[in-house]
Amino acid sequence: VSTRNGRDEGWSRSTERRSQHPGPHPNRDLGNRSPYPRRLDDAHMSSVLSRALAEGILQSSDCAAVFYDLTHLDSALCALRDSFPSTALHAAAVKANPLIEVLKRIRAAGHGAEVASIGELQLALAAGFAPSDIVFDSPVKTGGELSLALASGVMVSANSLAELARIGHICSVENAAALVSVRINPEVGSGAISGTSVAVRRSKFGVSLLDCRSEIVRAFSEYPWLAGLHVHVGSQGMASDQLLQGVGAVYDLCIESIGVSRLSFFNIGGGLPVKYHESDSPMCFDEYAHSLRKRCPALFTSDIRLVTEFGRSLHAGAGWVASRVEYVQDHPCGSPTVLTHVGADMFLRKAYRPDEWHHDMSVCDSAGHLRRGPPRTFDIAGPLCFAGDFLGRDVALPEDLQEGDYLLIHDAGAYTFGMWSVYNSRFFPAILGYEDEGVSFQHLRRRQTTSELVRFWSRG
Amino acid sequence: VSTRNGRDEGWSRSTERRSQHPGPHPNRDLGNRSPYPRRLDDAHMSSVLSRALAEGILQSSDCAAVFYDLTHLDSALCALRDSFPSTALHAAAVKANPLIEVLKRIRAAGHGAEVASIGELQLALAAGFAPSDIVFDSPVKTGGELSLALASGVMVSANSLAELARIGHICSVENAAALVSVRINPEVGSGAISGTSVAVRRSKFGVSLLDCRSEIVRAFSEYPWLAGLHVHVGSQGMASDQLLQGVGAVYDLCIESIGVSRLSFFNIGGGLPVKYHESDSPMCFDEYAHSLRKRCPALFTSDIRLVTEFGRSLHAGAGWVASRVEYVQDHPCGSPTVLTHVGADMFLRKAYRPDEWHHDMSVCDSAGHLRRGPPRTFDIAGPLCFAGDFLGRDVALPEDLQEGDYLLIHDAGAYTFGMWSVYNSRFFPAILGYEDEGVSFQHLRRRQTTSELVRFWSRG
User: Fold this and answer.
1) ipTM of the assembly?
2) B137–A63: do the CB atoms touch at under 8 Å?
């Protein structure tokens, strides 16, 4: 028993949908390849966990660990590449999963990196990305950061007209061969999750298309180095048609008032929702590309280079967490409380905004075998010293769950450990990469050591 | 102009209140010492910031920095010590402010440390605390962690009857000279902030007094090493009488069913709210001690050692943040948006639970001089790449606020950088300690470097 219902059907559903497309994509041969990697199920996780325990990769000190399926990432990268024109630059959002080893793999697959801070830019450079394959987004780029990025040939997305003016000053001074775009807010409204809805009326992101259309058009006359448009509507919680509507509005601006030939590139951002519930049916990459192609044909047929910034859809489904059940506390009324070793430190959004986020959970025994007892409800409490540190209330899990078991937390590869909160100085857990269901484990990141932790809080 | 109204009146109010006490405390001579340090005001912050800028301690790369008034901490530690019996152990909550340099200062003042994880235990040991001055609280202590703590003479607070049984096994095996207490949940209900209300019906903390009274009493018969009671009702948002009611309920249990002579120590936890709004009037330490003494006299007159676990009330008021205004974006409707360099990374609770938390703000120009223009409202946006990253909406600040200014964020010494989220790989800022309004600055922690950041996300 798990909170999910049986085996994953994502693959066959996607295949079925794809067959409804009016025709094959010109850029790829679908062959028998899945357009999107299959959702990992608990049988897969149990198999991998069992191997990790048997091989001693997962040690008793690892009260929690992240598992990351590198093959799954490869499939997602492949599906992404195959869905868009071969000239597209797919700049993976570093924030979703900033592990250097993962970034290296993305680079090796021929993709780029989207960075949202100067720190992320340094991570991308450390992982070996060429500056020309990096897109620098941030709403607070300083003058120094802009100079550094422009001088090194990184693509820069300006967040505002004020930033464009600042870039103009730098470009006129340094005469950099700038690769600058301007981010447009198409104001398509909020999705189901306000915290990830960036294209709203009072967003901090982008220049309002509604209020500043003429200023945007004028900027393309004024700044010869302004070479691209950028739009990003949101992330989890946005409806498919909101994504298309947002890109479409900026595309229309391009066609009507700027001209396709004036642009070198068009950055459609990321924001494809992923499947957290078995009942979710998000678009896969090729469905999205197919819809985009219909709505914005010149992005697929002209010399404009398409840039994407996907993150969640590359990583979320590739990662999962195994966290040991330390105690189970009965309550005379209500669900028993399961006390486990990850909480608001790793699943920050789930703990602080519990109604907006969800992760399926399953349970394995201490050897990694799935428990399949009949369900009962449990409260899932994290390790942190505050009352709100819960991963779920009244979660249906096997009633034979007991101390020493492992809680499996699904779809945890994006926006989880990448948002790690140092609260309570819990050790950042080991992150174990694997391929082919458990063969060739590798540490993508070792468990944090005491000396690392002490150094973090020391004078430095 | 600031969001606060005029100079702080905390000192005079406290003095006035103190004079209403029925008599002097037997344990101290109040003399002309303040019972609680005065709230730092924006004139103070401006003065310190100006010096830091003039002396070059704050550099242009420090787009944000934390300032921490060590004299303020000293005063708070002193007020705490003077309010309670001299035999009390005041174990400062490491989670509120885990800086090693700050912990060393607390130790040098003769206080102890409360640790909520094995990582925090290592920080306390690194700061030089004697194990016997450390209290180890955590809802997920593993067998290995318990063995280590008990063997080294750390005081352990058991969170549940199951944990007591686990300790019993270790104690019978290792015959440790254990200093164990059991945490009781008096279930006094929720305060204004659910996330910090731990004494509720389905809390993950403590043994329910309502459901398990007889089991608790039996544990004191069964376990000779069980030497203390522990209660902690909550933190910010709890009413004074809830705190007293919670401690009182566990005190009554002791008096009625266990016996004062059976206990070596009684841990009243922390949880004293602090002043975030000028209109807040939280109890100061001596008022709380005074009320406790009336409600629970034997804690002040018997041989029971009193243990406290204050955190927020020691640190919150000692720290403040200066964060540069990078951009100001006008909106045709609504408040302009101030884009600045701290957000949900440092003020995690404020960004994710905006209605529950508050920080007053002021503005200084680029030389550190207070802006005093007439107020208008601004939205305060952080640097992070998600829509919810705001420190406030429609905050009244001087209308002459401009790019290059510093936003001062008040009362930021507790549960702020100590909960730092690594999201977007922003550099952990410099933390500058100072004494006597800006003389003798010292780095309590240097700004994180690129190599530290890259190492954090590397294989290790």
Assistant:
1) 0.92
2) no
pLDDT digits (tens, 9 = 90+) for A302-339: 899 999 999 999 999 999 999 999 999 998 788 999 99
A-chain residues near B211 (CB < 8 A): 331-332
B201: closest CA of chain A, how far (Å):
9
The minimal CB distance from B116 to the residues A99, A137, A424 is found for A424
Measured CA distances, A349 to A318, A353, B351, B385, B386 (Å): 19, 5, 11, 14, 12
Instruction: Name the residue of chain A whose CA is nearest to B233's CA.
Output: A387
Look at residue B438 in the predicted model and tell me its pLDDT: 60
User: In this structure, are strands A337-340 and A319-329 parallel, antiparallel, or unpaired?
Assistant: antiparallel
User: Residue A75 is encoded by which pair of tokens?
Assistant: 């499939």
Mean pLDDT of A149-166: 95
Residues A155 and A120: their CA atoms lie apart, in Å, by 14
Question: With contact defined as beta carbons under 8 Å apart, do A273 and A8 qualify?
Answer: no
Question: Given this model, what pLDDT does residue B410 score?
Answer: 98
Write out the DSSP string of A145-213: HHHHHHHHT-EEEE-SHHHHHHHHHHHHHH----EEEEEEE------S-GGGB-SSTT-SSSEEHHHHH
- Measure B349 CA to nearest chain A CA, in Å: 8
pLDDT digits over B135-146, tens only? 999 999 999 999
Give the angle B299-B300-B303 at the CA atoms, nearest 5°: 70
- Distance (Å) from the alpha carbon of A68 to chain B's nearest alpha carbon: 14
Q: How far is CA A280 from CA A9, A273, A277, A284, B369, in A?
A: 11, 9, 5, 12, 54
List the structure tokens of B173: 């095996």
Model pTM score: 0.92
Residue A59's contacts (CB-CB under 8 Å, 6 or more residues apart) are: none
Strand partners, B202: none
B126 vs A: CB within 8 A:
yes
Report chain A's C-alpha Rg in angstroms: 23
Six-digit token pair at A49?
């966990």
Cα separation, A361 vs A367, whole angstroms:
17
Q: Which helix (H) or strand (E) holds A361?
A: strand A361-364
**A144 and B61: CB-CB below 8 Å?**
yes
Coil, helix or strand at residue A54: helix
| Cβ-contact B273, B241 below 8 angstroms | no
Contact A385, A344 (CB under 8 A): no
Tally the residues of chain A.
460
Could you give the residue ranges of the DSSP H alpha helices within A87-159? Answer: 100-108, 118-126, 143-152
Contacts of A446 in chain B (CB under 8 A): 459-460
Over chain B, what HEC string results?
CCCCCCCCCHHHHHHHHHHCCCCCCCCCCCCCCCCCCCCCCHHHHHHHHHHHHHCCCCCCCCCEEEEEEHHHHHHHHHHHHHHCCCCCEEEEEHHHCCCHHHHHHHHHCCCEEEECCHHHHHHHHHCCCCHHHEEECCCCCCHHHHHHHHHHCCEEEECCHHHHHHHHHHHHHHCCCCEEEEEEECCCCCCCCHHHECCCCCCCCCEEHHHHHHHHHHHHHHCCCEEEEEECCECCCCCHHHHHHHHHHHHHHHHHHHCHHHCCEEECCCCCCCCCCCCCCCCCHHHHHHHHHHHCCHHHHCCCEEEECCCHHHHHHHEEEEEEEEEEECCCCCCCEEEECCCCCCCHHHHHCCCCCCCCEEEECCCCCECCCCEEEEEEECCCCCCCCEEEEEEEEECCCCCCCEEEECCCCCCCHHHCECHHHCCCCEEEEEECCCEEEEEEECCCCHHHHHHHCCCC
Beta-bridged to residue A430, according to DSSP, are A65
**Distance from C-alpha of A95 to C-alpha of B389, rounded to nearest angstrom:** 14
User: Is the CB of residue B254 less than 8 Å from the CB of residue B263?
Assistant: yes
